[in-house]
């Protein structure tokens, strides 16, 4: 399977997963299918990064889409701020950008850049907490959603969609990228980590648990991505680069609005 084929499979699984997330009364097994989405997208980024000719342009593009997604989330949340709907915080561009950014630092092989990155993570975390929780800007219904928005803008690994674990997984996969057996072992290890984290702390409802370990109790089903990873042939395929970049935010908004409609939101909107 080429990179494009893997991305299309991940995209289909993502749509099914988001239907479960946004559309009421969708069966839970839609969410099971969606567990392969994140790891496949991260894996294709990791494998493709080594062949990226202009990494500065690539990182800039990922960050701009991440930033744009944050602005879109802020706009949607502002429009629907007076209705009993969940704040929109989806932004998978963030972990992709941060994974690629860390890989670019590692390839420089200069510890000072890692130190600077670590210092920025601490500073940006305090800034995110200050903006989202203390002064509550933007003032939407969910402090967690606000934190994820600022985490995306400031590039904080602790406030990225999916938490830091998937970013660490991406970096680890890059380090063993030339050995399929090692890739499977590392991937299996992180799948078991997701299971353990969900089992150990999944019942806790505090906001930091939700941000750092936002896993369902069936996140371990991401193991189903292993056959697709093993079938990867190290070829790019058709590409379709901007299709994936644009499809993600567009389908999120469409499903969010459909869910809002099915929950009677537009009726309430018309009454007001």
Characterize the structure shown.
It is globular, with a radius of gyration of 19 Å. It is mostly helical and 272 residues long. The mean pLDDT is 88. The protein has 13 helices and no strands. Helix 3 packs across helix 8 and helix 8 (164-175) packs antiparallel against helix 9. It starts with a helix and ends with a helix.
Largest sheet: none
CA-atom Rg in angstroms: 19 Å
Q: Secondary-structure element order, as H and E?
A: HHHHHHHHHHHHH
Q: Give the overall form.
A: globular
Helix content: 55-70%
Which whole number gives the mean pLDDT?
88
Strand content: under 5%
Determine the number of helices (DSSP H or I, runs of at least 4 residues).
13
End-to-end Cα distance, whole Å, is 52 Å
What is the strand tally?
0
| Poorly predicted residue ranges | none
SSE-based structural type: mainly alpha
């Amino acid at each position: 399977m080429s990179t494009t084929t893997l991305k299309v499979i991940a995209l289909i699984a993502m749509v099914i997963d988001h239907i479960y997330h946004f559309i009421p009364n969708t069966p839970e097994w839609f969410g099971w299918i969606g567990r392969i989405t994140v790891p496949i997208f991260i894996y294709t980024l990791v494998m493709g990064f080594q062949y990226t000719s202009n990494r500065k342009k690539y990182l800039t593009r990922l960050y701009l889409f991440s930033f744009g997604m944050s602005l879109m989330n802020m706009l949607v949340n502002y429009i629907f701020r007076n209705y009993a709907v969940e704040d929109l915080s989806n932004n998978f561009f963030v972990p992709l950008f941060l994974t690629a950014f860390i890989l670019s630092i590692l390839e420089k092989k200069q510890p000072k850049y890692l130190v600077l990155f670590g210092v920025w993570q601490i500073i940006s975390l305090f800034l995110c907490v200050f903006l989202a929780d203390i002064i509550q800007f933007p003032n939407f219904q969910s402090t967690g959603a606000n934190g994820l928005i600022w985490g995306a803008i400031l590039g904080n690994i602790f406030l990225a969609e999916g938490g830091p674990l998937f970013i660490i997984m991406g970096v680890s996969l890059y380090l063993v990228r030339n050995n399929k057996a090692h890739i499977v072992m590392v991937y299996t290890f992180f799948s078991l980590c997701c299971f353990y984290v969900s089992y150990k702390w999944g019942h806790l409802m505090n906001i930091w648990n939700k941000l750092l370990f936002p896993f369902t109790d069936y996140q371990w089903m991401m193991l189903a991505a292993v056959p697709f990873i093993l079938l990867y042939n190290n070829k790019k395929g058709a590409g379709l680069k901007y299709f994936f970049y644009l499809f993600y935010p567009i389908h999120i908004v469409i499903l969010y609005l459909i869910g809002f409609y099915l929950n009677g939101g537009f009726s309430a909107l018309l009454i007001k």
